Amino acid sequence: MGAFKIFSAEFKASCGTVEQFLKPTLPEVAIVGRSNVGKSSAINCLVNHKGLAKVGKTPGKTQTINFFEIVTNGPRFMLVDLPGYGFAKVPERIRELWGPLIEEYLRTRKNLQGVVVLVDSRRVQESDQAMVEWLMRLKIPVMVVATKADKVTRGHRQAALRELREGLGMEEDPLFLSAYTGEGKQILLDQLREVLTLDSPLP
């Protein structure tokens, strides 16, 4: 089997309420992480499209659930960008809107095949641990990806992986990803293919 490749990515919808969610016609993979984890850069790297997800100078910029249709050399799917969590400068009122929106999506979306959880490769936050634990309780396949891998020297890689694994309560090491160098990109793409080819509840 050849490498999994993404041919195109197209923005489809930006949803601020549950009622705006797209009809579940394709398998979906969601991507979530803290507001300063480099989520937009990771998405743009993954889909070979520098301007697809807006890279903001202010963490917490994404305030809606954004749907992108992805065409590949395998299954077509929807990549779903969830609002970042855990950023103190986001107004409380907005955080109160995000929380139920994200929770409703993750708990009820029948065509959700898996979730990519982005964590900073240099440190684990309590909110990261809480997100991973919650997804595991929901029995949703989780792929934990440590971003900004280029910031971690080769000599500190094993220690960083151990700290991430223990901090998140995982048995396996997270995957290092660098949006700057492309490290880990193909491995993550191949993991996405595995998740997308699991039995889907779609007809």
From TrEMBL:
GO terms for cellular component: cytosol. It comes from the Bacteria. GO terms for molecular function: GTP binding; metal ion binding. Its cofactor is Mg(2+). Pfam families: MMR_HSR1. One of its GO terms (biological process) is division septum assembly. Residues 25-198 form the EngB-type G domain. Transmembrane segments: none annotated. Keywords: Cell cycle, Cell division, GTP-binding, Magnesium, Metal-binding, Nucleotide-binding, Septation. CDD domains: YihA_EngB. Necessary for normal cell division and for the maintenance of normal septation. Belongs to the TRAFAC class TrmE-Era-EngA-EngB-Septin-like GTPase superfamily. EngB GTPase family. HAMAP family: GTPase_EngB (MF_00321). This is Probable GTP-binding protein EngB.
